[in-house]
Specification:
By secondary structure, the protein is of the alpha+beta class. The protein contains nine helices and ten strands.
């Protein structure tokens, strides 16, 4: 799933390709992906693209006062095309959810792998008309996201576990499963630790949150969309590395499985050497 660093890099890449071009058309090929009906999609035709931005993990393409909001969800991505595509005769076939075509024939396809389709596309006059955008918490890299503000968030969350807190888009925007694993590893904190941290611990987690995201953004700078997935995967310290050696201490990276997701952590770095309970695996091994 693309998270804040990748979506920021996608926005930067698209900004250089889209701004100044007029939209020839937007085609929807996976009809459930389209979440709005007013304004209609043909309202985009002929409008010049003025900017590309980001709200958390949502992309925002602005043209003529309208906002095309794309959320790539778990398995979505954007694939750039330099030339006009061949006509599609079977909407809904294959991984393409939507296709944007510019005045020179170039553009991009929004694709989604797998059978669980969650990618969403909205055309609105104000980004806050999209419920997911309206619910977003503060962006952890915006200037106003201070240590004091972060401490206030932790205090409000009380006994909530840090892993879930970091992933909750209504609490902090842009962090998903992968970077929450990485942030907690950098902070040397258990995913199951409660949010009620003392001043020293909260400062450590705040620095880990911001530095992890800033480092990823710095690595992504200048990369094309096609390069971002490989860059993200290659730089993970614990996420997706079950059974491998922790790059800090050499202990074996462990995993906890939930119904729809997994997370990874280092016992020596994060839990005092203790393996966390994995209810799914515990049941299988009984």
């Amino acid at each position: 799933m693309p998270e804040l660093p990748e979506v920021e890099a996608l926005a930067a890449d698209l900004r250089g390709r889209l701004v100044g071009h007029a939209i020839a058309r937007l085609e929807i090929h996976a009809f459930p992906a389209l979440k709005t009906f007013d304004p209609p999609l043909d309202a985009l035709e002929g409008l010049e693209i003025a900017g590309v931005g980001r709200h958390g993990k949502f992309l925002d393409i602005e043209a003529g006062g309208l906002h095309l909001i794309i959320h790539l969800a778990r398995a979505g991505w954007l694939r750039w095309r330099n030339t006009a595509p061949a006509p599609r005769t079977r909407p809904g076939a294959g991984p393409i959810a939507a296709r944007l075509v510019l005045d020179d024939g170039s553009g991009f396809d929004a694709t989604e792998a797998g059978t669980r389709k969650s990618l969403s596309i909205s055309l609105v006059r104000d980004p806050l008309e999209v419920p997911g955008v309206a619910r977003l918490g503060p962006d952890p890299l915006e200037p106003g996201f201070t240590l004091e503000r972060f401490r206030g968030i932790l205090a409000e969350q009380g006994r909530r576990q840090l892993k879930g807190l970091l992933r909750d888009q209504s609490v902090i925007a842009g962090v998903g499963n992968a970077y929450s694993d990485e942030i907690l590893h950098v902070a040397r904190m258990s995913p199951f630790a409660p949010a009620a941290l003392d001043e020293e611990q909260s400062a450590v987690l705040y620095e880990a949150l911001r530095s992890t995201l800033q480092d990823a953004m710095a690595r992504n700078e200048g990369l094309a969309a096609s390069e971002l997935k490989g860059e993200k995967k290659s730089r993970m310290r614990v996420h997706g590395r079950k059974g491998e050696a922790c790059p800090v201490c050499g202990d074996t990276v462990q995993q906890v499985i939930f119904a729809d997701s997994t997370f990874q952590y280092c016992p020596s770095c994060q839990t005092g050497g203790r393996k966390l309970s994995d209810r799914v695996m515990d049941r299988l091994l009984r």
